Amino acid sequence: MEKDNSRNRMFCLKNVNYFNENKKFKNGDVYISSGHISKIKDAEKSTDEGYIPIDASGKYAQPGYINAHLHPSKELYMGLSLYDPISNVLDAVHKNNISESNESQYHASVSSLHKQILNGVTGVGIFTSRPSVDAEAALNIGIRANIQYAVNDTWVGKESIPVIQEQNDIIENFSRIYQKYTSELISVSPATASEISCSDNLLKLLNKLAKDHDSFFSMHINEGKHQSDQCFEYFNKSGLERLESLGILDSHVNLIHCCHINNEDVNIINRNPTANIIHCPISNSFVGAGTLPTYRIRNNIALGTDAAMVNPSNSINSDALFALYHHGDDGFDKKLSSENLIDMVTINGAKCLGMTKSGYIREGFSADILLYNNNDHLKFDESISDINKFIINMINKKPEHVFVQGKHLVDNFKLA
What we know:
By secondary structure, this protein is an alpha/beta fold. It contains 13 helices and 17 strands. The chain has two domains: 10-64 and 360-415, Urease, subunit C, domain 1; 65-352, TIM Barrel, CATH 3.20.20.140. It has helices at residues 86-99, 102-118, 131-141, 167-181, 200-212, 225-235, 239-245, 263-271, 281-286, 316-326, 338-345, 347-352, 386-396, and strands at 10-19, 25-33, 36-42, 52-55, 59-63, 65-70, 121-128, 144-150, 186-194, 217-221, 253-257, 276-279, 301-303, 369-373, 401-404, 407-411, 414-415.
């Protein structure tokens, strides 16, 4: 393909089968200018003046995938175990985090983000207590990233204690990171580790910071019986009850996991349908935390891989496959629909991360695009539905080309 790799270049994917908002592949010409999709036209022989034509005949274009929850530096611990209780995992994370250097975390994050890009992830939610390290790694790769700066002001768990900060320091540090890294590709939002790492005052502060910055705050919540019980023992409320009682279970919160929930928890979530949920099915199974009952939830649900230490594949493609077949293992009425699965890894993830111009191949949206080759041994039979083609591409193939905001990051299956 054309080697000019500037985000400002003007080019056109000619005669490509692009996946549109109606979940149909349509043949056409996709024009890209200054990193955005400037226009989409029916396929024609000529190319508009000023655009470099790129022949994409026979290829399938899909919107880039969104991995809404990732701890990239934990690539360091991939393979230490194949399953482990959440308490053991948290204890190891908090102990090891102190001894890890910024350099080792940076290189682990770069390695993890390289893998994400090669699998077709163009946008990622990075949950981190070292925001500068992970922001620099994302900038190095060129991936679109939301840096979720995780802070804690208490710890009521029985595991090793994470880093604790005073609220004035939290405000000052968040402001510094926000001002330094906010750009077209990088956004910064507040976060806290979980319902057992934050006081009510910190939760209200994080909600205020999110609203002040037209953003959201993220937190792990109801990640297994052990975590939920510890929260209830100390606060006499579940994590979800705490958020609802404080009036902050709204569109400015991302609830990560929610996999150990009872009927009242489900009712709370459904009473607050603007709150976003990030589902991490392989990670939840790895630590024996439970299963998010997606069929009972009305909220926006995205998909995340979590971390390599609790998800050895650390691949959104694998999580998509697991989500599709793990749910409804004893009844098809509990299964995710194919349409919902596609939304979870595209537009729903973009919504969770505030990536308002990602998730669709649509005029005016960012050119975060994957190209799949259909001229190999996995060539599609014409009887296969377009939705099934999308999912088979996602779970069974690697993208031949990956563009993030028009920049060519993967060329012929290799990092450009």
